[in-house]
């Protein structure tokens, strides 16, 4: 019984807190630009509004048009449940769950790309192609980061992997994972979430034909993904698992807030990169994670 | 002490990769000069217990030469010859970054197998120098502009200097200052040559120099 209660509580925490992050990012951007900006809870209002609207379905689209976002959302929430939260542990943990996490993220991406191509619009296909081709590099970086954690702790389960402090490679790992966070969540140096100029969008281009509840599900899933990556980054860098529960909760919240504010600052201070420069930045992120792996390997051997 | 030393060499290795990945000439020159200054600090760190005027002099001369004089000469040559700031690579940025990283990792892994003195085995001196030499080679081969090739040559020289630090006790001051002087004069002359090439060919692209005819 307590297990089910624990699970429901954790699920509620993830689902309810996730839409807060885009609101904070927008607030930071508005603050840097000297505007008042939309309220922090704007995404909640948007989701509520979208949920009440009806769906416009293309006659060409197969059921995959609606199934895609739904499966993607479930995959992302499942990935979020795998993620341990400091000393509270994770909802379900087993040996090698980190692989499941990576594959669930990939499944969510596949479903978004699949749903994007359902209407047969060349434009959305272009967005999907871009998303997938960047993801190849971002995934390599995240696998290198996970490998460095595995080498450092000698464990393949998320809960023991993220608990201790990552040692000398922490700065490298933080820089690499932050870049991956920006790329995976389509934030500024890679994609501009505000733009509606056809040629510069990635994520927005994929969801153009979605409306009503499926769009709400996609937007909510994207915010869960952002929170997931922020939590992963904070736990990979700080030894949250070894703190007492109140300190860990405080450190985790402060860390996620800090990551969110830095995303907002990056977004206000940097311009979007030209498309041909993106692979270079992602390769840099990959190399940062590889060097963190090297430090973990060298540091433990000597 | 070995920790600080390794950190500085690690930073120099990072600067190698920045030099490989940067697409603008000023950025490349800056990476090269910051690396030179970092390497200038190294002898002071290595000999912090028994500092003598010789070592301080070498360190100061290295920092001034590589951090101020050489980049200044290069920037002046760049301005005088009106060189565009974009670097056009033979080997693209991503492949050269990957090559550089591969070289760095190989150097670190290889240095374990080398028969080093026990006092050098724990430091990154030898892998750092190998990595810088490899980076220099990649820049020399993979860039088309004369100035970026000069930067590659200087990074290669940084690597050789780093290797020379292993022998810091047995190299006389004369040799150190001679090398530094040679490099400075070399860059000075290259600055003049770059200007001449620019005037004669309206371009600094070394690919065009291979098609010279009588």
Give me the strand/helix succession of chain A: HHHHHHHHHHHH
Gross geometry of chain B: globular
User: Uncertain runs of chain A with pLDDT below 50, 5 residues or more?
Assistant: none
| Poorly predicted runs of 5 or more residues of chain B | none
Total domain modules of chain B: 1
How far apart the termini of chain A lie comes to 48 Å
Helix/sheet category of chain B: mainly alpha
Question: What's a concise summary of this model?
Answer:
The complex is a heterodimer of chains A (302) and B (214). Chain A is mainly alpha-helical and 302 residues long. Chain A contains 12 helices and no strands.
Task: Explain this structure.
The complex is a heterodimer of chains A (302) and B (214). The model of chain A has no long low-confidence stretch (mean pLDDT 88). Chain A contains twelve helices and no strands. The longest helix of chain A has 32 residues, at 122-153. Chain A is mainly α. Chain A has one domain. Chain A has helices spanning 2-17, 20-33, 42-52, 64-82, 97-117, 122-153, 158-162, 170-184, 203-206, 212-237, 245-269, 278-301. By secondary structure, chain B is mostly helical. The model of chain B has no long low-confidence stretch (mean pLDDT 82). The longest helix of chain B is centred in the last third of the chain and has 29 residues, at 173-201. In chain B, α1 (2-21) runs parallel beside α6 and α4 packs antiparallel against α6. Helix content of chain B is 76%, strand content 0%. Chain B has one domain.
């Amino acid at each position: 019984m307590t297990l089910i209660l624990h699970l429901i509580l954790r699920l509620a925490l993830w689902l309810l807190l996730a839409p807060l992050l885009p609101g904070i990012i927008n607030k930071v951007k508005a603050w840097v630009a000297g505007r008042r900006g939309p309220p922090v809870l704007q995404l909640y209002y948007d989701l509520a509004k979208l949920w009440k609207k009806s769906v416009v379905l293309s006659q060409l689209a197969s059921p995959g048009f609606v199934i895609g976002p739904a499966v993607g959302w479930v995959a992302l929430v499942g990935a979020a449940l795998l993620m341990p939260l400091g000393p509270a542990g994770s909802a379900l943990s087993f040996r090698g769950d980190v692989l499941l996490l990576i594959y669930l993220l990939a499944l969510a991406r596949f479903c978004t790309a699949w749903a994007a191509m359902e209407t047969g619009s060349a434009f959305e296909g272009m967005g999907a192609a871009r998303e997938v081709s960047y993801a190849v590099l971002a995934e390599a970086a995240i696998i290198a980061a996970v490998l460095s954690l595995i080498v450092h702790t000698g464990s393949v389960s998320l809960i023991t992997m993220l608990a201790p402090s990552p040692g000398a490679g922490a700065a490298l790992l933080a820089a690499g994972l932050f870049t991956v966070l920006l790329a995976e969540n389509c934030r500024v140096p890679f994609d501009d979430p505000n733009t509606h100029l056809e040629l510069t969008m990635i994520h927005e281009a994929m969801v153009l034909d979605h409306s009503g509840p499926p769009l709400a599900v996609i937007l909510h899933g994207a915010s869960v993904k952002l929170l997931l990556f922020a939590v992963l980054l904070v736990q990979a860098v700080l030894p949250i698992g070894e703190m007492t529960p109140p300190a860990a909760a405080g450190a985790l919240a402060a860390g996620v807030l800090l990551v969110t504010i830095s995303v907002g600052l990056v977004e206000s201070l940097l311009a979007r990169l030209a498309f041909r420069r993106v692979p270079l930045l992602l390769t840099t992120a990959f190399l940062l994670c590889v060097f963190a792996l090297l430090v973990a390997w060298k540091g433990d051997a000597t | 002490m070995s920790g600080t030393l390794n950190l500085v060499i690690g930073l120099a290795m990072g600067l190698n990769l920045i030099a490989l990945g940067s697409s603008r000439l000023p950025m490349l020159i800056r990476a090269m000069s910051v690396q030179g200054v970092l390497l200038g600090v190294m002898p002071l760190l290595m000999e912090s217990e028994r500092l003598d005027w010789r070592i301080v002099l070498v360190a100061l001369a290295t920092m001034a030469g590589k951090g101020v004089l050489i980049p200044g000469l290069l920037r002046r040559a760049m301005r005088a010859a009106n060189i565009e700031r974009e670097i056009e690579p033979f080997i693209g940025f991503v492949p050269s970054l990957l090559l550089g990283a591969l070289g760095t990792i190989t150097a670190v892994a290889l240095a374990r197998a080398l028969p080093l003195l026990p006092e050098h085995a724990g430091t990154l001196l030898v892998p750092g120098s190998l990595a810088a030499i490899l980076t220099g080679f990649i820049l020399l081969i993979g860039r088309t502009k004369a100035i970026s090739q000069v930067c590659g040559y200087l990074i290669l020289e940084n690597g050789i200097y780093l290797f020379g630090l292993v022998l810091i006790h047995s190299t006389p001051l004369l040799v150190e200052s001679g090398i530094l002087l040679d490099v400075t004069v070399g860059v000075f002359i290259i600055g003049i040559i770059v200007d001449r090439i620019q005037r004669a060919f309206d371009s600094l692209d070394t690919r065009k120099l291979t098609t010279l005819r009588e």
